[in-house]
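Subject: sequence -> structure tokens, single chain

Hey, anyone have a minute? Need the predicted structure for the following. Not urgent.
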Amino acid sequence: MKIATWNINSVRLRIELVERFLNEQAPDVLCLQEIKCLEDSFPAKAFRDAGYGHLAVSGQAGYHGVAIASRLPLTKIEKREFCNKGDCRHVAATLPGGVRVHNFYVPSGGDEPDPKKNDKFAHKLDFLDELRGWCAEFGPRSKSVLVGDLNVAPKEHDVWSHKQLLKVVSHTPVEVERLDAVQAAHNWVDVARELIPEPEKLYTWWSYRARDWRASNRGRRLDHIWVSPALKKAALSGGRAAFAVHDDARGWERPSDHAPVTLKLAL
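Reply:
Had a minute. Here:
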């Protein structure tokens, strides 16, 4: 089973890129973040025409929003609200074989990494705290995959300069501590770093501000695929070749600033 995650930064604006990705990579399941549309304006026909007729969408006008598009049937669709904000940042569904996929878009947190001065950063920390508590409720036999734009690059080599980004939102120690606590709450396996250990650099996001994003390569690893302990063998048995960051998509015309990430689960 091939699972993909991609912060698309407006699914309607970039539906042609999505169609291209589906045609070239043929994932069984595609999880999108920042779809930026309501459910009734989600381009469902384009997905059906591409062979992805099973959809779970949690949409919001102009902001946020997440969706799961699948070639396989989806059951037990769930949309959970965090922090009582009314934001659409989570959708989950169960795939054949009992694998449950949770698709998240964690708040970005604004620019100032001080919760007393910046409500957006305070919200991000609260969201991660609530997510930690929720993950702690997962049972030991849970066959779960957690994917999405978690908006934290947790490790030293998940950013282009650890020293220069320590006070930049997405890599501050307080955010990393919170995300580590989320991971520990269910012993989630961070597939990317299990298969591609540090000190190798690994990025999934490159700013629009860079004149030549590939030449400067000032990236961050914000997009993640985690699996529960029960799926660790399935996630890692394919080795490094089973995991990929499709950074070529970052160079397509009018791209998202995020690249798609895929994992082949050996189920």
